[in-house]
Amino acid sequence: MSKRLPELLISDIVDSGNKILSYTNNLSFEQFVSDSKTVDAVIRNFEIIGEAANRLPEDFKDLHLDIDWHRIRGFRNRIVHDYFGIDYSIVWIIKESFLPGMITKLKSLI
């Protein structure tokens, strides 16, 4: 397990989530997929989110069941192990519908 404290891992997740939102601010989906640097940055930060979530102690995650840790880790595994098969529309949907709420919940844990 990680030697980083849970609070630091949560901060890593929030920071990476905020970067994703910042990088894609005012972009349409079409603009996003046509900008390879932004796509790469967003994918990398989703990887960081998943890795940090994976390193959180199980007892910490058990205290915060309102966060879908399994889905966060699963998405990370999907983009890491199937990089050339990433569906950017799914990345966009997660960024739009899941990420802002997750950031809000996690900020309250810091």
From TrEMBL:
Domain of life: Bacteria
InterPro entries named among the record's database cross-references: HepT-like, HepT_RNase_toxin
PANTHER family associated with the record: RNASE MJ1380-RELATED (PTHR34139:SF1), UPF0331 PROTEIN MJ0127 (PTHR34139)
Protein name (database record): DUF86 domain-containing protein
Pfam families: HepT-like (PF01934)
Species annotation: Pinibacter aurantiacus
Keyword annotations of the record: Hydrolase, Nuclease, Nucleotide-binding, Phosphoprotein, Toxin-antitoxin system
GO molecular function, one term: RNA nuclease activity
TM helices/strands, residue ranges: none
GO CC, any one term: toxin-antitoxin complex
